[in-house]
Amino acid sequence: MITVKDTVHDHIEIDGVAAALIDTPAVQRLRHVKQLGTVQLVYPSANHTRFEHSLGVYHLASRALGHLGIGGKRAERIEAAAMLHDVGHGPFSHNLESLTHRRTGKYHDDVAELLATGAVGDVLRDHDLDPDRIAGIVAGEGVYAGLVSGELDVDRMDYLVRDAYHTGVPYGTIDTERFVRELTFVERDEADGSGRDGPELVLDEGNVQTAESLLLARALMNPVVYTHHVARISKAMLRRAASELLDATATTAAELRRMDDHDFLAAIRDCRTTEELSRRYDERDLYKLAVWAEYDDVPDRVHEADHETEVALEREIAAEAGVDREHVILDVPAEPTMRESTARVTVNGEIRRLERQSPLVSALRTAQRNQWRLGVYAPAPATDRVGRAAADVLGLDPDGLVSEVRGAVPTTLDEFE
């Protein structure tokens, strides 16, 4: 057994297949992949990695399995999947995933090939575990996969509290111990419309507020951490650099997926096409906001634009503004979603969707939509020109644009009366 001192969960005890997996190259690589990507440019202490997060997910999964009374091979499969759930992440976590998916067809949870080969595959087979079955659990397949990849999974329980701790932002605090104690499996109602077989993971009776706390933590962390405008700009610049790296060198998207943060930064520093973006990232000389537009002020054709259309729009904006194309980045976030709202809770003996039971869900959906922003970024000297050109090309109402991002302002409670 291995005992690890953790900032979030105190002492984590790791045993069995999970302990054997820790020293495999695939898991050790996660020490060099930041959990929050570029958020460290906003919160300097946000330097935690996917490695310690994986330990935390294993810990919570193990605790949940104990409370659920699940043991034997079934528990070993879940614990292995918890330890391995992030090994498919590329550099800077989710940041480059849209790019690598376009070129490889794989997301970070497509790990069958990675788990079947090398040291990870050897460890799994040594413990009589099928690598394909573990990969399926990581991808959310199977009766008990919801513990690791689902609406109430231990993955989000760990990353919310861990991200809050390392950024110093208190909004991500949730009661993880209560969560894992109150999880239970019930037989699935054939009329639930999910199309899945077997038992489903739900929160036991009296835990509507427990589920709401997860939604609220995510909603509060989103604008101040995950979608902070500086993090958004820096991520977009690195995505541009990654795309140009693949086009300008022999590096393949499959190779990019297996890099860590250091590998990637070294690669874009060494490539003449990307060296300027690399310099800007290294020196925090970031592009600035030319446009920061709210959801309802953005035409449907822009919301629905695919990657090729976005590239064409960038070129059109640059031409109208009279700047080089590389000096314009269009950043259209995905449509707002709230997967956690479909989680199921027990109320008066009946299994109900949280969105049906909780009036908070509707309010948080509205808040999420109101927090959504389209961004257009450019070097500081060109932001006015690019902003005007972007408003024209994208069909934005200039009066509806968010002209500035408000920083922290002292306030008092009487202002909310």
What do you see in this structure?
This protein is mainly alpha-helical. It contains 20 helices and nine strands. It has helices at residues 16-22, 25-28, 50-68, 72-84, 97-104, 112-116, 118-126, 131-138, 154-167, 176-182, 208-226, 229-248, 253-258, 261-270, 275-282, 300-303, 307-321, 354-357, 359-371, 383-394, and strands at residues 2-6, 10-14, 183-186, 200-203, 288-294, 329-331, 344-347, 350-353, 373-378. The strands form four sheets. The protein has a three-stranded antiparallel beta sheet, with helices on both faces. It has a two-stranded antiparallel ribbon with strand order 1-2. It has a two-stranded antiparallel ribbon with strand order 3-4. A hairpin with a 3-residue loop joins strand 1 and strand 2. It starts with a strand and ends in a 23-residue tail after the last helix. The model is unreliable at 406-417 (pLDDT under 50).
